Amino acid sequence: MTPIYLGYTFTIEPRDPATEILIAELGYAGFESFTETSTGVIAYIQKQEAFPEGEVQFDKLLNDIQILNSQEFKITYSAEEIEQVNWNEEWEKNFEPIEVDGKCAVRAPFHKKTDVAFDIVIEPKMSFGTGHHETTHMMIKHLLKLDVAGKKTLDMGCGTGVLAILAEMRGAQPIDAIDIDNWCYLNTIENVERNNCKHITTYEGEVSLLSDKNYDIIIANINRNILLSDIPTYASCLSEDGILLLSGFYTEDIPLISEKCNEHGLYFVSNYERNNWVACKFEKRG
Question: Where does S-adenosyl-L-methionine bind (predicted)?
């Protein structure tokens, strides 16, 4: 049976950066795909997966998003039943290859091979992490600068697996890639195989999987609230002089993130910034 989908059209004032926050939270709530618009975003979910308690439960989610992120923005929405969407066709229409610092390219299987040192082929489907978003782009920049050869690495919230794949291409091993979302977990496995990676192990789950683990480098491109919750665990898993790369938050969040890191022996080194998004590098010191 062809699944029936609901399309929620959100109008967000101001649109940025609230749109990215909303997309992240809706993804955790079971929404499968998103189309950004000039005024917000359209989000799609299978009708049978929608909130069993209806609009009251949905409105509570939107209210919780506002409270959790301490952002002043207004969200209004409408919903309608839509025909089945071919998600692959949707992203193929708009997915253009990107290049970072002339060294790394992220492209789809239907794009021509690029003449760069690290040519990554990603079929993102519904997963986050094509390199187009500012946070992924900046994390790629960090990995291109970092000496990762022979370093045990974690890609937490791996999405498509693009950062784990780049880490292996640059010599990191072994690598764990973890995502709580089943679709991301499966998509990472596909992309790891597509790029002939041999040293990446993919797991479905969250921070509890890190018990008794140890890494030289941890990459976490998630969102501010999850990072604040998980930083203590990252610190306990990171070797002395290890590197923690964090993104998924904004310039104004750096003091809050840095304070939490400092509490656990992690100290700010540097950061990149694009359109108010940041990607920070921290180092563990005794």
Answer: 136, 157, 179, 221
Interatomic CA distance for residues 258 and 267, integer angstroms: 7
pTM, two decimals, is 0.74
Per the domain annotation, does 124 fall within a domain?
no
Give pLDDT tens digits for 8-49: 898 888 777 677 777 777 776 777 777 778 788 888 887 777
pLDDT tens-digit series, residues 40-58:
888 888 777 766 555 666 6
262 is in an annotated binding site: no
Question: Of 85, 114, 145, at which residue does a domain stop?
Answer: 85
Domain with residue 20: its CATH number is 3.30.70
Whole-angstrom Cα distance, residue 170 to residue 80? Answer: 46
What's phi and psi for 270, nearest 5 deg? -165, 170
H or E, element range at 272: strand 266-274
Q: Residues 176, 266: one domain? A: yes
In a domain, 206, yes or no: yes
Q: Do the beta carbons of residue 151 and residue 216 sit within 8 Å?
A: yes
Strands 104-107 and 40-46: unpaired
Residue 183's contacts (CB-CB under 8 Å, 6 or more residues apart) are 32, 125, 126, 127
157 is in an annotated binding site: yes
Q: What is the CATH number of the domain that holds 269?
A: 3.40.50.150
Q: How distant, in Å, are the alpha carbons of 48, 104, 106, 194, 269 from that of 119? A: 39, 6, 6, 12, 28
Say which amino acid occupies 100: V
Asked if residue 136 belongs to a known ligand binding site, the reply is yes
User: Residue 76: beta bridge partners?
Assistant: 11
What are the CB-based long-range contacts (under 8 Å, 24+) for 88-93?
A: 88/123, 88/125, 90/33, 90/35, 91/124, 91/125
- 260 and 178 fall within a common domain: yes
Residue 265: give the domain boundaries: 133-284
